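User: Show me a protein chain along with its predicted structure.
Assistant: Here is one chain, sequence first, then structure tokens.
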Amino acid sequence: MLIDGKTRLAAVIGNPIKHSLSPFIHNLSFQKTGINGIYLAFELTFSDIELTLETIKRLNMFGINVSMPYKQAVLPFLDCLSKEAQLMGAVNTICHKEGQLIGYNTDGLGFLKSLENHNNFKIAEKTMVIIGSGSAATAIIVQAAIEDVKKIIIFTKESYLKETKQKMTLLAKKTRTVILTYALSQKKIFEAVILSADLLVNTTRIGMDGKSLALPSHDVRLPKNLLVADIIYYPLETPLIAYAKKQGLKTLNGLGMLLYQASISFELWTNEKMPVQEILPLLEEYSQQSLGV
């Protein structure tokens, strides 16, 4: 990669952020597409946010990705928001176009693209069961609603139940989508609901330890046509993925979501498509080496 006077900068901000795989993905993409760019990771505090966003314009950067805990904090400093970012109330991508900073959220669309490209699965008119109610879950739920999902059933911790119901009631009204919310501990409801589901998604951290199963119990029978996805990408095979495979089901880990949400950001910045099929096997190898240290 040649860095010269014409090289443009992109970056990711967050705290912590040094573990991010985004620099690997985007710098490899710049290299393979021949675009004169470089991508870095910056660990910031909340007091840095306003000046950082001003700097995007001053340095004529492509833009930035935004990681936790700043996905809401950047909103007051943006010129406009995309539809999905408005509905979510959070952004993960900021694009610098003609002196304006435009906020997007590519997480949900990245997840759905990973399903479509690796399993030929389209969310329209499907029933989705989702475990968790955090920012990743919200991104997936919003994008699924935009793309005409039939029904969304959320299972979350009891402590988050009231807040999640309130948030999802508002979202259901805005998108005219059927969204139901239950406690994850309600095993019988889960067992009944899952029988008519097309997609099961774990958006929590449950399973990152390689031991914990993101289900109400260890004896839940999953329907034979269910697609099971886990947004965790280390380990690549979580206990949920292993559990689904034992029942003969199709599965998807979180590496696809990571790559496809990045590809959407890359295209917004450069107007060029990221060569995802070339990058995916390299990312899989690199992620296990770097995160396994």
